[in-house]
Specification:
Strand content: 15-25%
Structural class: alpha+beta
Number of strands: 9
Shape: elongated
Order of helices and strands: HEEHEHEEEHHEEEH
Oligomer: single chain
Number of helices: 6
Radius of gyration: 26 Å
Length: about 240
């Protein structure tokens, strides 16, 4: 993104040019750090989808050329000098990833040829991002397979249970980065803490909790279900 911005911004669109990328957690567009021609305050702007020209392009996936921004009520007037704007979506098979945006202090500055050029560049960026995503996914799959292989070797070569649990937690962190993790084993009507990692104090190893009281564990123990809590603070039994 920075290389594209540097090359295209320096040679063709020197006023204001750059990419705003979609943050799916907050569903806003955020200026990429390489965005040219904006000050620090503008870099902190978060553009909601369907807001302004860039937010509308990101929401609809359709390019937009505005000859006179003063006549467009959806224009976000961050810089009073700007008179015309052109924005195209950066898309791939996973949807709109962001937009390329360029602005000018001249009225009706951009042409159909400009739109075609930017759309071509945006398409190439979208394809590149897709390739990077696939490459990262393949890397993660290789890492997962390698970790599972190493865990299998650990289980086959080690007889000390504490060593096995510690090594498994070490391997787990390579795949699922965590702040803390632990092993609990059933002993009668109790869950016994057997091994910890991360921020948990090893001094609590051996702590026992009544299975009856640990309601969050019930679907795991009684139904053999995998459980995911997105916000544990909202679980009254935590």
């Amino acid at each position: 993104l920075q290389r594209v911005t540097d090359i295209i911004g320096a040679t063709i669109y020197p006023d204001k040019f750059g990419c705003l990328m979609r943050d799916r957690e907050i569903n806003h567009l955020i200026p990429h750090y390489s965005y040219r021609g904006i000050d620090e305050s503008a870099r902190q702007i978060r553009v909601p989808l369907n807001t302004g020209i860039s937010g509308t392009v990101a929401a609809t996936g359709k390019p937009w050329r505005v000859a006179d921004v003063t006549q467009e009520p959806r224009f976000l007037n961050v810089n009073p000098r700007i008179r015309s704007e052109r924005c195209v979506p950066i898309s791939n098979s996973n949807g709109v990833k962001g937009v390329i945006n360029t602005e000018s202090g001249e009225l009706d500055h951009f042409t159909d040829a400009d739109m075609r050029l930017l759309s071509t560049i945006a398409g190439q960026i979208g394809s590149a991002l897709e390739r990077l995503r696939l490459h990262e996914s393949e890397r993660e799959q290789r890492q997962e397979a390698e970790t599972l292989r190493e865990v299998a070797e650990i289980l086959g070569a080690t007889t000390d249970s504490s060593t096995v649990l510690t090594l498994i937690l070490d391997q787990l962190k390579r795949l699922v980065p965590f702040e803390s993790a632990s092993f609990h084993f059933v002993r009668g009507d109790k869950l016994v803490l057997r091994q910890v990692a991360g921020t948990l104090d090893p001094a609590i190893i051996g702590y026992e909790l009544s299975i009856k009281d640990d309601k969050l564990a019930h679907p795991i123990l009684k139904e053999k279900a995998n459980v995911l809590h997105e916000d544990i603070a909202n679980q009254p039994d935590w």
